[in-house]
Amino acid sequence: MFKLLKYLKGYKLQLTIGPACKLLEAIFELIVPLVMADIIDVGVKNGDGGYVLRMGGVMVLLGAVGLCSALVCQKSASIASQGSGTKLRNELFHHINTLSFAEIDKIGTPSLITRMTNDINQLQYAVAMLIRLVIRAPFLVVGAMIMATTINLKLSLIFFAAAPLIALVLYFIMSRSVPLFKLIQKRLDRLSLISREGLSGARVIRAFHKEDKEQERFNKANEELAKTAQNVGVLSALLSPLTYAITNLAIVAIVWFGGSLVDTGELQTGEIIALVSYMTQILLAMVVVANLVVTFTKASASAARVNEVFELEPSIKSGSDSELALRNGGDFIEFENVSFGYGGGDVLKNISFTVKKGETIGVIGTTGSGKSTLVNLIPRYYDVTDGRVSVGGNDVKSYPLSQLRRLCSVVMQKAVLFSGTIESNLKWGKKDASVEDMNRALEIAQAKEFVDKLPNGIETPVTQGGKNFSGGQKQRLTIARAIIANAPILILDDSASTLDFATDYALRKSIKNSTDGATVFIVSQRVATVKDADRILVLKDGRLVGNGVHSQLFEQCEEYREICLSQLSAEEVQAQ
Known about the structure:
576 residues, alpha/beta, ABC transporter transmembrane region fold, Rossmann fold, 2 domains, six-stranded mixed sheet, four-stranded antiparallel sheet
């Protein structure tokens, strides 16, 4: 947690005023029993109603000042906790955006979301409790014991005996319940994972008639969580009876021994009531301390999870600080003995090829052959483990990431749209795009026809994830978003998989006729999609086994021929 204290540096005023006001409130709270004792021993005993009213007014004044102090402390705690939490969340989000796909894959998107929301919320709560209660609770315990000694030294020994006993009970319960609180968090994460899988994969579950199995898996995780929570509940249930038993025994002792001191005149009746009030304050403060232990234990675990993300250094760092010039002649894109692996063996092995500017390159291969990985190396979503990838005569590692990403316009396998409108999504590709630019991109992507039929056209709302559009419509909109950027390199990573053959053909023809000068990579498992490319790269088990035009590869590359014949007859292949 200490590593995250830097986010509180801008809130020194709140960190000072808040605890100071809470301390002032605690002081007034310790004074109240003495005032109450005077009311009983002087006002009530002597029948002096005026004294009772005056001292009652003092109690009201103490309460009012204490309330104002508490409100100031509460506001300070709110400003510091919410402000530091906002700064922490902003920086964590920024840091996550600097990570490469490899680091994000390592932790997982769901876990990152949990750390940005639940874990930081827990840290915010801990900061608020730090300001509000960390000073107040111990001060009340120590202060009540000191005030007891000022009233009567003999009876204060009861306080010094009861307080350690209460602390011992709290330690006994907390030492056993804190590990269970951590276990609850883990089992809650497990339950959340199962819930997320069950809801997002509802169609698959029903398709395979696995409702009963998934219900059983959910019930098991839910029962484990409930059982652990019950165990914590049993331990927590012991807290109040044991602490109140000790406190009540102490109160009985105060009244018993104090009664004899009243008879001898050493003690006043009001002073006994004040001692009872101080004992109650000690009990309540001890319970607050116990809750603080739980809060800071949870916060410590959350801080460790947040720090784990911060300590994860991005494996892909920006190259030059200034933009690099692109070479006009020669090969535009070059792979030199490139190998790449995710950590469990090489996905790509010793791949070499060159691409001239303006060429259309088809990439085909069986599932898992490394097609998407290959094109992801161009914009440096991953870095090669061996070899070199260059664009425009420069190693991609030497480019500023901002420049390299502007050179590449990528359409991913999974079509992703963001909540907003069609227009706002298209402007991701070009923020100052005109209506004409957007209409042109939609026309090239074969999306204009269905967009024009929508009641609001490009102003049509897009729900989360684009769920109000079909798979094919989403793919065409993401292609339009990439086209509107007008980047020198256009990468279509199996982005037309849900389109029918006629629309796919029209899309490829339109892209070829409308993107003069752009270097286009078309990744697909369809022969028809890549057949008319200037060159086709054939991958098998991460190796480049073919590089040429369709007719040449069909004759000379066995793997390409197998793919062709698995989709088309020999006559159809030759006819196309």
